[in-house]
Write a structure and sequence with these properties.
2 domains, 5-stranded antiparallel beta sheet, Alpha-Beta Plaits
Length: about 220
């Protein structure tokens, strides 16, 4: 799938890496070249510096070929305008925009787009940490029958190897970050508390993932 990610902050860069790791063709657009430093050196997608509202930048991003677009900048107004343009002008099938400030949420709703609120994510992150449940469903794709899970390593997982978590041998569908830095995944990588693992797996492997996590936390 050809995906455009608008905004290369912490959220945009993490999303771009995970999508690329999952096998999608990713183009990241940001007005500041410095923002691309958030991407790891081995990122395989394209990066384009420029104002996403200009026709030249959109054409360089090949928006006419895009199958999905995520507008995840810190500007709610920009996200809404870019999303609306992608949907109505360029007919991008799947468009999702970020809501950064809850006060702008109602305004963004008028554009008729899918909205993801980072304020809501923050609330759920507190709940996740307090519940001591390391496994969180991020996204499901019924067409490919796969799901993206986030695993936040707790103290109970510290010291275990990354390979012990995986229901199958390490594949290209794994991304791990430590203190916002993307690490090179390896089966013998020792987990530390606070590490964040993003894993794309088929639906039929989810039960095995739950079993492995339960077993590791009991030890």
């Amino acid at each position: 799938m050809n995906v455009i990610v608008v905004g290369c902050g912490r959220l945009g860069s993490t999303l771009a890496v995970q999508l690329s790791t999952s096998g999608h063709q990713v183009t990241v657009v940001d007005a500041s070249a410095v923002s691309f430093n958030n991407l790891p050196a081995d990122f395989h997608g394209r990066v384009i510096e420029g104002d996403v509202l200009t026709r030249d930048v959109l054409h360089r991003a090949e928006i006419d070929r895009a199958e999905a677009l995520a507008a995840v900048t810190n500007s709610d107004a920009l996200n809404a305008v870019v999303g609306r343009m992608a949907k109505s002008v360029y007919r991008v099938p799947n468009v999702v925009i970020r809501n950064y400030n809850p006060r702008w949420h109602r305004f963004q709703e008028t554009f008729g787009l899918e909205i993801v609120s980072t304020a809501g994510w923050g609330m759920h992150r507190f709940e996740d940490l307090l519940s001591d449940n390391p496994l969180h469903l991020i996204f499901t794709d019924d067409k490919s029958k796969t799901a993206i899970y986030q695993i936040i390593a707790s103290k109970k997982l510290q010291g275990h190897l990354l390979g012990e978590l995986l229901p199958e041998p390490l594949s290209r569908n794994v991304t791990i970050t430590r203190k916002s830095k993307v690490l090179q995944p390896a089966e013998d990588l020792t987990l530390k508390s606070g590490d964040v693992v993003y894993l794309t797996i088929p639906f039929d492997q989810v039960p095995a993932l739950h079993q492995r996590l339960s077993a590791l936390q009991e030890n």
